[in-house]
Amino acid sequence: MMENNAKPKRRVLSYVLPVAIVLAAGAVAVALSRSTAVRVRYHAWRLDNEIGTAQRRSVDALVALGEPAVPALEHALAGARPATRNAALDALTSIDAPAAKAALARTLDSPHDDLRLAAIYSLLGSDDPGLLPAFRARLHDPSGEVARLALYAFLAYPSDVAVAELIEALKRPDTGLWREAASRLADYPMGQVMPLLVEELRGNPALAPGTRLLINIVADDDPGPEVEDLLAWWQVHRERIEQYEAERRQPNEEP
After folding, report:
1. Terminal-to-terminal C-alpha distance of the chain
2. Cβ of 18: how many Cβ atoms within 10 Å?
3. Per-residue pLDDT averaged across 21-35, rounded?
4. What angle in degrees, to the nearest 10, is found between the helix axes of 113-123 and 144-153?
5. Helix and strand tally (H, E) in the chain?
6. What pLDDT, on a 0 to 100 scale, did the predictor assign at position 29?
7. Residues 32, 38, 39: CA angle, nearest 5 degrees
8. CA distances from 196 to 127, 192, 227 (A)
9. Residue 94 burial by CB count (10 A; 0-12/13-18/19+): exposed, middle or buried?
């Protein structure tokens, strides 16, 4: 009789035990989640109320927490205290996560020149296509240094993307960066750059000064200021330049 009663109990335990394990695991996960959120809030508070070494410890703790700390750090960037903003930016630049890069891109709209400058420095070298709109917008930045770095940011992208972005900057003399754009374009093969420029030139005479400067930098020649002069120059020199660049791209032959 006792043996018969034990069997139903064992069957009940075989169902209850897995359920209990799942519930316990869920409770642990919730506790850990809450613990992370609590730690983020605690260190974000300290970030805004400490200085020196104490604040540095909170920066390090938030970096260690990683992506969950990003929203609190981005909120701290809008704080009134410069030390808080700088510490939050320091932490964000040290977190290797897409959310952190997106927050830094949004920081490029900050009203504070120092934050925009630090943010764009931290993003230099990235070839994330999602950052291109933010870099384009900064070409009009009231800080000349931020605008110049936005132009340099394009150089990290594949050459077809970089050339296209530099040509866009070249056709916008209102940014004040067209000369810098011409100088950067000079680092790319003329056989890649000039066909695109010529195509744009036909419908956009505003490109003429930049194209003329580019030719002057690369070929030490002055074709003249008019669109027709520039088109004629390319027509005459195109074959020679493309052949020269093709020969340079060939691997060196063994002696």
Report:
1. 98
2. 10
3. 52
4. 20
5. 13, 0
6. 45
7. 90
8. 22, 7, 14
9. middle
